[in-house]
Amino acid sequence: MTSQWSAPTAQGPVHATVPVPGSKSITNRALVLSALASGGSALRAPLRSRDTTLMAAALAALGVGVADGPDGSWLVSPGALRGPADVDCGLAGTVMRFLPPAAALAVGDVVFDGDEHARVRPMGTILGALRALGADVDGDALPFTLHGKGGLPGGEVVVDASASSQFVSGLLLSGARYEGGVTVVHRGEPVPSSPHIRMTVSMLREAGVVVDDSVADRWRVEPGPIAAREWRVEPDLSNATPFLAAAAVTGGEVTIPGWPATTTQPGGAVRELFERFGCAVALDERGLTVRGPERLSGLDVDLRDESELTPTVVALAALADGPSRIRGVAHIRGHETDRIAALAAEVTRLGGAVEETDDGLVITPRPLRGGVWRAYADHRMATAGAIVGLVVPGVAVDDIGSTTKTIPDFPGMWSTMLGAR
Ligand SMILES: O=C(O)C1=C[C@@H](OP(=O)(O)O)[C@@H](O)[C@H](O)C1
Ligand SMILES: C=C(OP(=O)(O)O)C(=O)O
């Protein structure tokens, strides 16, 4: 169901403190690692949104116990994985790429499907890799069926992960449970979103798994147990960026409490990005605070490592004083939608000038007018429309419900932020 939403226009500089829910990427990794662990685990402050509840439901369908604990935590009790099971991936890259390598450990058939937009997201690399490692899987895209044999020989596999880092992360997350572990070698154009692979490696090590990532584009996971543990989930720093952008575009000040001093999330690059737009950024005991300038500067930036931030960056660039260029994100044509085409189309429809390039976008700011901003079922397209709507009267986002993919109540958080003084 889609839901059109009139984006509120800010009545002045936005001043607010905005707590943001847990990280999608950390929550879904912690769920998979807990499901494959040797005992019961707890996730504290997990994200509970569409992507993570789909992951929890998929694990439950495979025989894992996922129960509600105190204060919104999740308690995970591993069980022998078994089919037959149906897995709904929704539009979640982390479900469609992290779960098949785990489902290969199940006995029985596991059928994967997802939203219409999910059926065109790249999957061939990871399904081909699983076949090379000994799995029996039909198809190269959603929907597909994995005929689980209760385990996998594992070993070395060569992949081209230039379309998504999630191909590598997915194989590594389950690899310790394969008889021979797993060695993933990447050959091709550079792997995008590499902080997310470092997040995978770091969480595997926290769970006692031996990982060698000392050679570029090669990851070795030794076979062995995955330790049960308590996972504390950081706030989602990428989902913090629309709120920080509200300060940037209105000359206001927004603080995100609980911002980690160090992090493997690519949102860690947020500080530098906002500074380059001309904002003042401070990290102190209150959290991360962004103060907006009188006018935003344009920038020339390679977002390969932080590609999921592109929609926020394009919204800011469209409202800046000078032109911007975004490079290094060719693969985001395979995200929730073709984000390069979608961003160019929506900014252009409101009167902006945007050119698509092979690996990104060139944005020349022009005065924008109101109109419908299409989300293409993509949560970050929707939040980009909300940012533009803060300073351009009459913007309506056609499907604000798409934000539930990673934020349970984005419209509520947005109006609370605007109501704060
Ligand atoms: O592993 C993860 O949690 C993610 C990896 C990235 O995917 P790509 O490598 O496909 O960009 C990122 O964009 C996505 O939002 C989350
Ligand atoms: C690319 C994204 O999501 P997914 O995990 O579905 O790939 C994203 O959240 O920007």
From TrEMBL:
Q: Where on this chain does phosphoenolpyruvate bind?
A: K24, G93, R121, Q166, R339, R380, K405
Q: Which UniProt keywords apply?
A: Amino-acid biosynthesis, Aromatic amino acid biosynthesis, Cytoplasm, Transferase
EC number(s)? 2.5.1.19
What is an annotated GO biological process for this record, any one?
amino acid biosynthetic process
Checking CDD domains in the record gives: EPSP_synthase
InterPro entries from the UniProt entry: Enolpyruvate_Tfrase_dom (IPR001986), Enolpyruvate_Tfrase_sf (IPR036968), EPSP_synthase (IPR006264), EPSP_synthase_CS (IPR023193), RNA3'P_cycl/enolpyr_Trfase_a/b (IPR013792)
Region: Disordered, residue numbers: 1-20
> What SUPFAM superfamilies is this protein classified in?
EPT/RTPC-like
The record's Gene Ontology cellular component field reads: cytoplasm
**Which residues act catalytically here?**
E308
Tell where it localizes.
Cytoplasm
Query: Which part of the chain is the Enolpyruvate transferase domain?
Result: 10-412
Pathway it works in? Metabolic intermediate biosynthesis; chorismate biosynthesis; chorismate from D-erythrose 4-phosphate and phosphoenolpyruvate: step 6/7
> Which residues are involved in binding 3-phosphoshikimate?
K24, S25, R29, S164, S165, Q166, S193, E308, H335
Per its record, the protein catalyses: 3-phosphoshikimate + phosphoenolpyruvate = 5-O-(1-carboxyvinyl)-3-phosphoshikimate + phosphate
According to the UniProt entry, its GO molecular function terms are: 3-phosphoshikimate 1-carboxyvinyltransferase activity
Q: What does this protein do?
A: Catalyzes the transfer of the enolpyruvyl moiety of phosphoenolpyruvate (PEP) to the 5-hydroxyl of shikimate-3-phosphate (S3P) to produce enolpyruvyl shikimate-3-phosphate and inorganic phosphate.
State whether it acts alone or in a complex, and with which partners, per the record: Monomer.
Give the UniProt family note. Answer: Belongs to the EPSP synthase family.
Q: What is this protein called?
A: 3-phosphoshikimate 1-carboxyvinyltransferase
Its taxonomic placement starts with:
Bacteria, Bacillati, Actinomycetota, Actinomycetes, Pseudonocardiales
